[in-house]
Write a sequence for this structure.
């Protein structure tokens, strides 16, 4: 019995000393945490003359001696378009760290030279390269889109308050987001919320995406020159399937947006300078008339029949002074490149 006890103690001691002297360890090494930063393999690009129109990509490769926070910055030398890619690792893998030609926000890249910089947090090293875009990425591959290049769509309906001043509800050709044309929406209506709207019919009955995976993208233009601080647009989407788009020919507006119908809304304040591209999941839209017990709000993208983009601003006249500081100021909420995309926002595709 004593021999057995001694044997157990001996085995236990051997195990104890082994666990105290083994070379394996958990977590990052001391060198990784506190050692000097080194670049093992420099920055290389898989494609420095990409044709993004043909869906080519640029992959980035770099190998480091320890994991660090890194950032790749791509800057268009003609358009000033930009894109950043960030990560934390000891290796930038060209199979997974790729660029497909899109910016983080407008302006878009064109056929141009681009600078590429790879920087590291808390390190002085910056690696540089260049890309020459052979063909720029295009942005027309969606479920449905309207870019006003052929003027106002044949079935489109425009309404605006004819008593307003400087009303601009028409197609213009003086600085579009993409292409040559866009739709101007603005003017001055001091006494009311609504300036006007554009209604467009939609037919996307073959869409298979759920509301979470359907994105509505739209370009919006404003300026900061005496900006009306209460301006916004309302995007309304109708799932009314039993009424014709233009049932009443006398009202200059679609008949698919009545208060008795299944309509969803998204309000977007417009308070920036220049063009911006905004993207929204359809599932983020809210019922416009949620308290109507006769409407079933089941949000089915297959039932979408029309979109309304309404230009609005808070009233400023003495009779209805919601925001009197804006009295006499023009509203500008111009739009371009309305596109429905599947599974991702336009700039993330």
């Amino acid at each position: 019995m004593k021999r057995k006890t001694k044997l157990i103690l001996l085995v236990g001691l051997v195990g104890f000393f082994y666990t105290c002297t083994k070379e394996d360890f958990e977590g990052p090494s001391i060198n990784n945490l506190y050692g000097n930063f080194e670049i093992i393999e420099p920055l290389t690009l898989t494609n420095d003359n990409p044709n993004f129109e043909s869906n080519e990509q640029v992959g980035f490769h770099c190998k480091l001696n320890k994991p660090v926070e890194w950032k790749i910055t791509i800057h268009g030398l003609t358009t000033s378009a930009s894109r950043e890619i960030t990560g934390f690792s000891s290796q930038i893998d060209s199979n997974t760290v790729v660029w497909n030609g899109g910016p983080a926000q407008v302006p878009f890249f064109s056929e141009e030279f681009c600078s590429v910089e790879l920087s590291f947090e808390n390190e002085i090293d910056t690696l540089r390269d260049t890309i020459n875009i052979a063909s720029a990425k295009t942005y027309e591959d969606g479920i449905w889109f309207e870019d006003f290049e052929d003027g106002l769509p044949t079935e489109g309906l425009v309404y605006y308050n004819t008593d307003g001043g400087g009303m601009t509800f028409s197609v213009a050709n003086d600085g579009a987001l993409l292409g040559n044309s866009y739709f101007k929406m603005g003017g001055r209506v001091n006494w009311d919320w609504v300036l006007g709207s554009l209604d467009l019919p939609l037919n996307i009955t073959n869409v298979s995406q759920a509301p979470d995976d359907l994105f509505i993208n739209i370009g919006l233009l404003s300026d900061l020159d005496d900006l009306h601080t209460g301006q916004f647009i309302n995007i309304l989407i109708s799932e009314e399937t039993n009424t014709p788009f233009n049932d009443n020919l006398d009202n200059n507006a679609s008949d698919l947006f009545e208060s008795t119908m299944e309509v969803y809304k998204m309000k977007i304040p417009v308070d920036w300078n220049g063009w911006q591209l905004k993207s929204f999941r359809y599932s983020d839209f809210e019922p416009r008339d949620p308290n109507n017990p006769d409407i079933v709000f089941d949000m089915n993208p297959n039932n979408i029949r029309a979109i309304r983009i309404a230009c609005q601003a808070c009233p400023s006249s003495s009779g209805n002074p919601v925001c009197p500081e804006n009295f006499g100021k023009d509203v500008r909420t111009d739009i371009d490149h309305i596109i429905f995309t599947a599974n991702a926002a336009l700039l993330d595709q």
In short: DSSP finds two helices and 20 strands in the chain.
